[in-house]
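@channel sequence for tomorrow's demo:
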Amino acid sequence: MRDYGSGKIILKKFYSALEEVLKMKIENFLEQHKDVLPKFEVVHENKSVEEVLKHLREDKHYIIVIDRKGKMRGIITYIDFMIMFGKKRTTALFAPFSSVTRSLKRAHMPLKTLAELKASDIMNIAPPHVWNHSKVEDALNNMSKTGNNFAVVIAKGEKVVGIITAHAIFRAIIRKAEL
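structure tokens (generated this afternoon):
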């Protein structure tokens, strides 16, 4: 027979932890929960696809693409990389947020052509982002609005300082609730 009393205690602990984590400033969240955050790399927009793949092979899940001034231009995830060489995508649907190359169907391009692609050719343009002084709740709302499970964290001067994910937020809540 199920003990509903202990279930209520667990829900109460979860809810309390949820409220506490969502009120945190993102910069504090990044510091306190480093171990649950995904690995990422920042690369210049002119880096080769080969170099992007090297970072992905090093277990970096997110590759943030910056311009010569250090401002974020886009993002490449391991999933995007696989999709780029996968099924055909409709250009009209993805054009505002993707480069032309991402709309290619399965890459039956010569290796030479693939080798000439740059990070800016395959990145998703205008990834979701939040300021590091914002609250974790703002990041979660941003993810919900954009249909993503991540947001790039930006500091003063538009410097990339991290990635926050819905999964990392959930794990932080579970940890704080001691479940």
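heads up for whoever presents: The chain has one domain: 4-177.
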